[in-house]
Amino acid sequence: MCTLDNIQIEDLPYVENDLNFAQKVSLCFLLFGDQHAHATYILQKLLALARSPPAEQLNSDLLRLYTQTNPSRWRCHLVEALCIINARQVLRKMGMNWEQLRLQYLPQIQEISLHVHPLLKALYFICEQLTIAQSGRLVLDINEKLNSTESLRFYDFAYLEIFLLDWLTRRHLRLGDIQTIGSDVQLLIEYFKFNDLQSLATLLIQTYNCNAKAQVNKSECESDAQQVETVTVAKLPKTTTSVATDISSANLPLVNSNGVDYTQQQKQQQQRSDALQVQRDNAGILLIINQHSFHQNVSEDLRAFLPVQKLSKRDGTDVDRQRLSDVFSALGYSVESHDNVDHLAMLDIIRDACARSMLRDSLIVCILSHGFEGAVYGCDSIPVSIIDIQNVLCADEHLYDKPKLLIIQACQQNEKNNQTRNVNATTKSPSQHANMVVAMSTVPGFVALRHSVNGSWFIQTLCETVKELAASEHVLDILTRTIGKVSQKRGDKDHQIMLPLLSSTLQQKVYFPAI
Fold first, then answer.
1. What's the distance, CA 252 to chain centroid?
2. Burial class (CB in 10 A: 0-12, 13-18, 19+), 452
3. In terms of DSSP H, where are the helices of 356-438?
């Protein structure tokens, strides 16, 4: 019998060729549904495949993409998902024994799972139980209730998982963590109850209970709704709009019969489950553009953009670069450092990092350079507008839902005679600027202090604070704490002070992996 370790990435195109389009949709739903950062892209891939001729639907590369999002555990997730969708022929071709897999993964029990998110498994079975007419009515009624102006322009209700994936990416539904803490499928529960589909509402409630209780007392899940033990109901905060709210009103358990109250534990986990947790094995790229030395060897048409005085060497910047690399690599980031890059190459490097961040959890860009208000210099002494850099980061549609952090260590003094070159970096909609954080070393109009041996105040303090608080605080709190620490520093010359600046359009809290 084949073991999981025998499954190789090179085998996946053959596996995918043996799946029909409906199976591919179900498989993507089970594998990508709890990966918000990647689900939007996969949704677009599925929509493109759905509109393609049947012959072209065979030429997909969905499973290979999944291995990039879950490099350490993709095999066990894939095999369980194939069991859930009952792809026995595919599993046999992979050398798997169905009876052994059935005993291990229990695909017939709808409320529990080993690796696939349990609510995704429950929702898959709901898709299987509904007729096409029922699915169509569900989609139309839910979209009408949501009053959504953004339509998929997709109307094949046989693929209900595509619509569920859309609601998940728009956060109308929430899965919570693997124990379903922080989940919110109340929208579906209410719909099923109102439309005499009580068994489907019960399945979702049971799935929550079975997995939440397993976290507390490792008890075995009951598969019959009538067998769920009766216990005291804990009162949840009124602001919590999750499955737990429905469970409370249905007199289903939140505290078990042994008297173990996990409401407080749930509140603590709720903070993380409502947030985006950057995963260590998929954190993303940390791009460092480190400008130490500058020149003015530019073409005649660019000389008008050169500063009046030649830019000095930025001694100490290599210390910042190394500290950033050490701290963020410990978080799981792939560090890419570029020294002394001209202004256009700087933008090209950022665009390239964006293109390679499609399946990553986040992207961080650090620019260490000279600058003036609203701009930073390339090593060719040509300034680039910080707004243009933000536009480059926000222009890639695959990154709209991902946290993007732009960190700039550069002076921001007001130099009226300086101007930036138009580099044609634009965005078309305010929504493109979502989930963008800009952390500046100083407020406009002032210098950014840097020690020629020890590095800059801002970068060194930021790295120190990330290292200290990554395990407990979200990104904006870490940056706020950094601002507080820097503002308390005093320089030797005329009691120099500095105040960093933070702006954010994050739509939820974001947590780094712990160091």
1. 32
2. exposed
3. 386-395
Q: Which two tokens stand for residue 20?
A: 């029909």
Q: Which amino acid is at 55?
A: A
- Annotated catalytic residue 370: yes
**Is the pLDDT at 388 greater than 60, yes or no?**
yes
Residue 249, φ and ψ in degrees, nearest 5: -70, -20
Question: Mind listing the pLDDT tens digit for each residue in 307-358?
Answer: 989 999 999 999 999 999 999 999 999 999 999 999 999 999 999 999 888 8
Q: Is 495 helix (H, G, I), strand (E, B) or coil?
A: coil
Cα separation, 454 vs 379, in Å, equals: 22
Residues ≥6 apart with Cβ < 8 Å to 79: 4, 7, 91, 96, 101, 105
> Which amino acid does the sequence have at 107?
P
CB-count exposure of residue 497 (10 Å: 0-12, 13-18, 19+) = middle
Half-sphere exposure of 479 toward its Cβ, with a 13 Å CA cutoff? 22
CB 200 within 8 A of CB 190: no
Rg (alpha carbons) of the chain, rounded to whole number = 26
Cα first-last separation, the chain: 39
Q: Of 115, 411, 463, 474, which one is the catalytic site residue? A: 411
Own/partner long-range contacts of 495-498 (Cβ < 8 Å, ≥24 apart): 496/449, 498/441, 498/442, 498/446, 498/447, 498/448, 498/449, 498/457, 498/458
What would the 3-class secondary structure string for 135-181 be?
Answer: HHHHHHHHHHHHCCCCCCCCCCCCCHHHHHHHHHHCCCCECCCCCCC
Half-sphere exposure of 353 (CA within 13 A, CB side): 31
What is the separation of C-alpha 514 from the centre of its chain, rounded to a whole number of angstroms?
A: 16
Q: What sign results for the dihedral spanned by CA atoms 344, 350, 356, 359?
A: negative
Return all residues near 461 (Cβ < 8 A) that are at least 6 apart: 482, 485, 486, 489
Residue whose token pair is 């555990």 = 73
Catalytic residue among 370, 379, 394, 474: 370
Residue type, 11: D
The SS3 assignment for 277 reads strand
3-class SS of residue 436: strand
- Render pLDDT for 182-234 as a digit per residue (tens, 0 to 9): 888 989 999 999 998 999 999 998 888 888 655 544 433 333 333 333 333 33
Q: Which pair of structure tokens corresponds to residue 165?
A: 């994936």
pLDDT band for position 487 (50/70/90)? very high
Cβ atoms of 415 and 374 closer than 8 Å: no
Exposure on the CB side of residue 337, measured as CA atoms within 13 A: 18
**Separation between Cα atoms, residue 69 and residue 75, nearest integer Å:** 12
Report the residue count for the chain: 515
How far, in Å, CA of 293 to CA of 295, rounded? Answer: 7
Helix%, strand%, coil% for the chain, nearest 5 = 45, 10, 40
Q: Identify the H or E element spanning 265.
A: helix 263-273
Residue 8's CB: how many other CB atoms inside 10 A?
8
